[in-house]
Amino acid sequence: MSVNPTKQTELETLLAISSGLNSAQGNERFKTIMHQLLGDLCETIKKFDITDEEFWLAVNYLNELGERKEAALLAAGLGLEHYLDMRADEKEAATGNDVGTPRTIEGPLYVANAPLSEGYARMDDGSEKAETMWLHGTITDLHGKPVAGAIVDIWHANTLGGYSFFDASQSEYNLRRRVKTGADGRYAVRSIVPCGYGCPPDGPTQKLLNGLGRHGNRPAHVHFFVSAPGFKHLTTQINLNGDEYLWDDFAFATREELIADPVKITDSKVSQERDINGPHTEVSFNFALVTS
Ligand code: MBD
Ligand code: FE
Q1: pLDDT tens for each residue of 152-203
Q2: What string of H, E and C letters represents the secondary structure of 63-97?
Q3: What domains lie within the chain, and their CATH numbers?
Q4: Is 109 near ligand 1, meaning CB less than 6 Å away?
Q5: 217 C-alpha vs ligand 1 centroid, how far in Å?
Q6: Which of 21, 89, 117, 269 is the most exposed place for a label (fewest CB within 10 A)?
């Protein structure tokens, strides 16, 4: 197939002008990336002979995505956020350095400045009838030495898969806490066992996933930021073993090393020690940090 040289030049001219390459102002890296992106888009429009109707459907979709504030949710669902982790892992592996607890995506539902306490916190506001969770572990360096003064920032969903701030029915900072480790490197929280998350069924992300024949569910999980002076910041999550979506996460965040086994505790002495009234679920998870 021969290319019409006139048309080709016309497209190249259009892209050069629209991405600012002909301008002395603007940001060079941004211009170059936009040039590539716009060129790829035009190629796709041509390759699939995109109709006007399809084009405006896509434009309106972007507006809807913004209106519903779901751009980050879609980025997770399309695997793009996970791709950033894949690249970070690859770069790390190339250095040959030891790695600690693996990273995985942050997701779109973190809120900064959760209440901070030393060693222990209760995370739930007591408003839900739910299984009590005792979540605890140690923060160490790569040699297993406890890290004192680490901030363990934890957030997770309630029994309906909803997150405070994004779910107006929950109290402020419900199921969001920061715990600072002492000399033993330990953190412990009392909370409730979370349920898996599902994309808003009437939202633009789920609408797109439907078109791909995909679901928008995540297994039950708990998010962590772990940071300490002298160590690399860790963004990760643990997944609760036994969840039907454990290996079918729409956001691709599950990793073998990040699966935690929930254990049913029926020993009343242990419950009493934890000031928990009756049987509960224990989740234990340790984190190993890499020096920065
Ligand atoms: C979540 O709870 C989440 O962690 C991600 C990554 C996407 C949507 C909801
Ligand atoms: Fe989440």
Answers
A1: 999 999 999 999 999 999 999 999 999 999 999 999 999 999 999 999 999 9
A2: HHHHHCCCHHHHHHHCCHHHHHHHHHHHHHHHHCC
A3: 5-50 (no CATH), 80-288 (2.60.130.10)
A4: yes
A5: 9
A6: 269
